[in-house]
Amino acid sequence: MKTNPMPVLFTVGQVIIFPYYILWLKELSLTYTLFALLFAVHSFAAALGYSICQRWMLRRASLFYIASGLLYLSVFTISTIYAVVVLQIALGMSQGYFRAWHVQQVSYKVNAVQHYLAVGIIMVALAFIQIIAPAVLIASFGVMLCVGGVLSNKESVAT
């Protein structure tokens, strides 16, 4: 049985870019209160995304990865707080949706330890790399999701 590497890429990638995303979000929010409110919006949207997945599940996960990748790529175009709120809602919903979908997969429990180990190893490596702007790493993750989504879509169509 062939396993799809995309759930691992998505899970590990989200954890890895999270500190950089926090820096990017803090730069745009300017105040701690607004920063906290933006995270509250993200959490509420994640709960909504989780609930939506319980009722309606995508048949092609590859479309989800491409859409999520495009969201992460949008960090280069966002300059207003309104756009940040929309991004927080969209990313929160996608994270909650993915979590609900992923916990239903057989590989979720099997790969949990490997996910944590991969995050640790990659974060140690990133600690020694100077990143010019957090948006570069966030957008790179978006590109990886888009490419992976396209490749996994081609594999699912071929089978």
In short:
28% of the residues are buried.
What does this structure look like?
This protein has 159 residues and is mainly alpha-helical. Helix content is 82%, strand content 0%. The chain contains six helices and no strands. The protein has helices at 6-29, 32-55, 61-73, 81-103, 107-127, 134-158. The longest helix has 25 residues, at 134-158.
Oligomerization state: single chain
From N to C, what is the helix and strand string? HHHHHH
Strand content: under 5%
Low-confidence stretches: none
Radius of gyration: 16 Å
First CA to last CA: what distance? Answer: 13 Å
Query: Major β-sheet, in short?
Result: none
**Average of per-residue pLDDT values:** 86
Helix content: over 70%
Number of separate helices: 6
> Which class of secondary structure composition applies to the elements?
mainly alpha
Keywords:
159 residues, mainly alpha, 6 helices
What's the helix and strand layout?
Layout: H1 6-29, H2 32-55, H3 61-73, H4 81-103, H5 107-127, H6 134-158
